[in-house]
Amino acid sequence: MKRSFIHPEKSTIKASIGFDRAIGWFAEIRDEGKLVEEYDNLIAPESTVKGILDLLIKYDFFTKWDLSEALSLIPHLDEDECENPPPEVFENDGERLAATAVLFLKQAADPPE
Asked: Is 36 in contact with 20 (CB distance < 8 Å)?
């Protein structure tokens, strides 16, 4: 299960995140299609959701503050809003992107049967 995000300010930068049974949690950052950084069990044997979120923060997809705010708002979203977090719930695009990433990773961790 994989999801990609375009950087909010630099359209040439793309992040792909997800979970694969063979390599566990993974993320990769590409700029103009070239691999800039990757993260998975081969690189970090204990790859985690936190590691993925830290990588997205490192490349300025969102800030730690955005992530903190998103985590505080997620419990108040209904089921439909979790599928596609509405912009009006969040103060900025960083919070919405952080929430979208967290909700996707949660879904990847517990896929429907």
From this structure: no
Residues 6 and 8: their CA atoms lie apart, in Å, by 6
pLDDT over 80 at 25, yes or no: yes
Which SS3 state, helix, strand or coil, does residue 50 take?
A: helix
Tell the residue number behind the tokens 């997620």, with chain if given: 74
Confidence of residue 112 (pLDDT cuts 50, 70, 90): low
User: Could you tell me the sign of the dihedral formed by the alpha carbons of 50, 12, 70, 103, in that order?
Assistant: negative
Q: How many residues does the chain have?
A: 113
Is residue 26 within 8 A of residue 40, CB to CB? The reply is yes
- Average pLDDT of the residues of the chain: 91
